[in-house]
């Protein structure tokens, strides 16, 4: 029989060095370690833990078989026969600032007033909004400014739980591509002042900044189809491709926003539904079977002493990020050992960090020990 042991070695930065005052061995519990700033806001944390969201590009373009509208299409073309918006739970919205229809577009003050008026209507008449998605889309030849600071302030004032997306945050940043792929290491810390909306530094957006002062996690947008809108002639990506995107976005500390455009009936087409179902089933199959579920987990160090339950190594087997292992302070290297007690063959390891206290893990090193007791080769 082969026994597999997983050895996990953490390499961390910014470990809090301050010790709480207390006498070792006293009854007072050891408090959690100091957070490493920046940390997520309440809204950002709930958003980031949700992992995935759907994006629905649906409008006149759906009915004119186009990706870009002119702003002059007759609103009557928008005539879905079977749309039912009832089941939609958790609402976000994208109000494109590039309004090709609006006559005052091009006049900075008048257009910003118009835009804020529309935004106010959207944020006060349709219930709770969880995300406002903004890009810097701007018409060619129009010398006009978008007053982003005023937009952001108004959005935060009108909606308590909202997370604002743009190239530069303030709450979540564009990852920098439309393929749904984040940098191999993707930091939520970021300096908002380093980028402006419409002018990102692709590598910086993809990877974030280990020394960043603002918590601005990346959001990965990608369409299940070649374009953002539904076209009868196009087909969705397959479930294997979506799984690969999932690993490269959610698996890299980001939220995956998957565009699934309704068809001209106002429904998700059958082919897309099938792919989504398969994608869900694949993930269930992969993640429902945890080979480490009954592992004996030990670590070379435990915050508050080896017997401390609050930071015990076995905490890492629980789902929640509020249950975690922490090492003693002031140490530079440590290891964790998972004894699976039996042979297992696997190709996915899920490692998470309690990001409510900031992001500090630079990388993990995983070693696997094969201990063959038989003489099989
Ligand atoms: C982000 O800001 C911090 C603090 O000012 C600074 O140390 C770091 O170098 C900045 N990152 C970049 C890429 O400029
Ligand atoms: C899924 O799509 C990708 C990209 O088009 C392709 O390479 C792959 O073979 C497809 N996989 C399956 C199982 O159809
Ligand atoms: C839209 O998708 C639904 C399935 O959800 C299908 O019944 C309907 O025919 C589709 N409409 C078009 C125009 O393809
Ligand atoms: C863990 O133990 C439970 C209860 O004994 C058992 O049902 C499950 O199959 C075990 N899981 C693994 C991966 O060994």
How do the strands and helices of this protein lay out in sequence?
Layout: E1 2-12, H1 42-49, E2 52-55, H2 60-64, E3 91-94, H3 108-124, E4 129-133, H4 148-158, E5 163-166, E6 172-174, E7 189-190, H5 202-207, E8 214-215, E9 218-223, H6 239-249, E10 255-259, H7 270-288, E11 296-299, E12 335-339, E13 361-372
Parallel strand pairs: 2-10, 3-4, 4-5, 5-6, 6-9, 9-10
Antiparallel strand pairs: 1-12, 1-13, 7-8, 11-12
Helix pairs in contact: 3-4, 6-7
Bound molecules: 2-acetamido-2-deoxy-beta-D-glucopyranose (4 copies).
Number of domains: 2
- What's the pLDDT, averaged over the residues? 90
Radius of gyration: 24 Å
Count of β-strands: 13
- Bound compounds: 2-acetamido-2-deoxy-beta-D-glucopyranose
Uncertain spans, ≥5 residues at pLDDT below 50? 1-7, 9-23
Roughly what percent helix? Answer: 10-25%
| CATH homolog superfamily of the largest domain | Glycosidases
Shape: globular
- The strand line-up of the biggest sheet is 2-10-9-6-5-4-3
Signal peptide: 1-20
Keywords: Glycosidase, Hydrolase, Signal
Family: Belongs to the glycosyl hydrolase 29 family.
InterPro entries: Galactose-bd-like_sf, GH, Glyco_hydro_29, Glyco_hydro_29_N
Q: How would you describe the overall organization of this protein?
A:
- This protein is α/β, with parallel strands linked by helices.
- It folds into two domains: 1-15 and 290-377, no CATH class; 42-68 and 122-268, TIM Barrel, CATH 3.20.20.80.
- 20% of the residues lie in helices and 18% in strands.
- It has helices at residues 42-49, 60-64, 108-124, 148-158, 202-207, 239-249, 270-288; strands at residues 2-12, 52-55, 91-94, 129-133, 163-166, 172-174, 189-190, 214-215, 218-223, 255-259, 296-299, 335-339, 361-372.
- The longest helix has 19 residues, at 270-288.
- The model is unreliable at 1-7 and 9-23 (pLDDT under 50).
- One 2-acetamido-2-deoxy-beta-D-glucopyranose binds next to loops.
- One 2-acetamido-2-deoxy-beta-D-glucopyranose (NAG) binds at residues 238, 240-241.
């Amino acid at each position: 029989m082969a026994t597999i042991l997983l050895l996990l070695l953490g390499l961390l930065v910014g470990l809090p060095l301050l010790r709480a005052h207390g006498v070792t061995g006293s009854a007072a519990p050891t408090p959690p370690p100091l957070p490493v700033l920046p940390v997520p806001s309440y809204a950002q944390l709930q958003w980031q833990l949700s992992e995935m969201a759907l994006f629905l590009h649906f409008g006149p373009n759906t009915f004119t078989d186009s990706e870009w509208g002119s702003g002059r299409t007759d609103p009557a073309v928008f005539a879905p026969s079977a749309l039912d918006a009832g089941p939609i739970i958790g609402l976000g919205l994208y109000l494109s600032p590039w309004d090709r229809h609006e006559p005052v577009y091009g006049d900075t003050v008048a257009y910003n007033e118009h835009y804020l008026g529309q935004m106010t209507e959207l944020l006060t008449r349709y219930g709770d909004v969880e995300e406002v998605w903004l890009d810097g889309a701007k018409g060619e030849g129009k010398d006009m400014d978008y007053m982003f600071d005023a937009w952001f302030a108004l959005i935060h004032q009108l909606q308590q739980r909202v997370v604002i997306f743009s190239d530069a945050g303030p709450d979540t940043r564009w990852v920098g591509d439309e393929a749904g792929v984040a940098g191999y290491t993707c930091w939520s810390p970021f300096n908002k002042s380093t980028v402006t909306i419409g002018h990102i530094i692709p590598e910086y957006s993809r990877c974030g900044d280990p020394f960043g002062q603002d918590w601005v996690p990346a959001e990965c947008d990608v369409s299940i189809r070649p374009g953002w809108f539904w076209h009868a002639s196009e087909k969705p990506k397959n479930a294997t491709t979506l799984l690969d995107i999932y690993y490269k976005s959610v698996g890299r500390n980001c939220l995956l926003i998957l565009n699934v455009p309704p068809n001209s009936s106002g429904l998700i087409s059958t082919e897309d539904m099938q792919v989504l179902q398969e994608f869900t089933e694949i993930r269930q199959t992969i993640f429902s079977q945890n080979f480490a579920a009954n592992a004996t987990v030990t670590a070379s160090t435990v915050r508050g002493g080896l017997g401390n339950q609050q930071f015990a190594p076995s905490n890492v087997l629980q789902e929640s990020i509020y249950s975690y292992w922490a090492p003693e302070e002031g140490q530079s290297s440590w290891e964790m050992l998972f004894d699976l007690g039996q042979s297992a063959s696997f190709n996915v390891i899920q490692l998470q960090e309690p990001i409510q206290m900031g992001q500090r893990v630079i990388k993990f090193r995983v070693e696997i020990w094969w201990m063959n007791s038989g003489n099989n080769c």
